[in-house]
Design a protein that fits this description.
Pfam families: FA_synthesis (PF02504). The protein has 314 residues and is of the alpha/beta class. The chain contains 10 helices and 13 strands. Strands 1, 2, 3, 4, 5, 6, 7, 8 and 9 form a 9-stranded mixed sheet that branches. A 4-stranded antiparallel sheet has the order 11-12-10-13, with helices on one face.
Length: 314
């Protein structure tokens, strides 16, 4: 296998071939693969960003990169303005905030809306099955599980019969178009993966990647990623013990806070003399405050750097 990969790399580097499909190829850190599945029932094609490899050792940074990798792949595959959704996993709200900042800085990202009545760019299980976005963003391990499920749910799991495989390795320094399959990939998936590779070569994947990275970097992607990896909690003075204000009846709900930031957000409100409690609503983590202080609390959280808004009715 190692010898075959060396031969593959040589053929790619000297231009004999422009793309290749293989198994068990080791990408460097910073490169991960964008799979393509066919959603059940509706038969919509959807890119899973990402499915193997590691975009970054830092979870949120990796998911932000995954979004860019998915956009690059979708564009090279013929979708001029792909819609992007972020799956509701740990870190999703931080990813949403980072992508919106990137968008505000001038990099175009077509964030889509959930099919659920509460909308928003954070996707739920319904959206995953329906293929609401062209590009579904999540961490690689979760994406890998999705590839297995979407590809083998009709066969019992040991034979992947549907979809296009785990996709091309994408990264800023990645110059070779190499797509990944697994040992469980059946003949239909292998055939589709070869077609996927051919479409990406025709779509000039390498040039698309170069252009998108240039545009993203111009929109301060490196600075945004650097801010994500800093160990700087929004609530300062962590040595200081924050005492909760007098307890109140809390019936107002605030959503949009990532679960990893939930307790920090509660303490940020306590510091403003607003009594708050954390909880779990129908769409994810929520902060509960009194109805009378709802707007004040939302404003205080936004001022502290949290993404926050009134929770929708379920």
């Amino acid at each position: 296998e190692e010898e075959m990969h060396k031969t593959m790399e040589k053929l790619l580097d000297d231009g004999t071939i422009q793309g290749c499909v293989t198994m068990h190829y080791n990408f460097p850190i910073g490169v991960s693969t964008v799979g393509k599945v066919i959603t059940p029932g509706r038969g919509k094609e959807m890119f899973i960003a990402t499915t193997t490899g590691t975009s970054s050792p830092h979870r949120v940074e990796a998911m932000v990169k995954n979004a860019l990798y998915g956009i690059i792949t979708a564009k090279a595959n013929g979708i001029k303005n792909p819609t992007v959704g972020i799956l509701n996993v740990d870190g999703a709200r931080q990813v949403e905030k980072a992508l919106k900042e990137l968008k505000n800085n001038g990099y175009h990202i077509n964030l889509t809306e959930s099919m659920r009545s509460d909308g928003g760019s954070i996707m739920r299980g319904n959206d995953l099955l329906a293929g609401t976005p062209d590009v579904m963003v999540q961490d690689t391990l979760t994406g890998n599980v999705f590839m297995k499920i979407f590809s083998a749910y009709t066969t019992g799991g040991d034979y992947e019969s549907i979809g296009y495989g785990y996709g091309p390795g994408i990264g800023e320094e990645q110059q070779r178009t190499i797509l990944i399959l697994s040992r469980a990939s059946g003949v239909p998936v292998v055939a589709n993966a070869i077609q996927y590779a051919a479409e990406l070569v025709k779509g000039n994947l390498k040039e698309v990647a170069k252009e998108e990275f240039e545009k993203a970097n111009k929109a301060k992607l490196p600075e945004i990623l650097k801010s994500l990896t800093k160990d700087n909690k929004k609530v300062k003075d962590t040595q200081e013990k924050v005492t909760a204000p007098p307890k109140e009846v809390v019936t107002g709900s605030i959503s949009g806070i990532d679960i990893m930031d939930l307790e920090d957000a509660v303490e940020a409100l306590w510091k403003k003399s607003i009594y708050a409690e954390s909880g779990m609503g129908c769409t994810g983590p929520v902060i509960m405050v009194s109805e009378e202080k709802l707007n004040t609390a939302i404003a205080a959280l936004k001022e502290a750097g949290f993404v926050a808004g009134e929770a929708p009715d379920c």
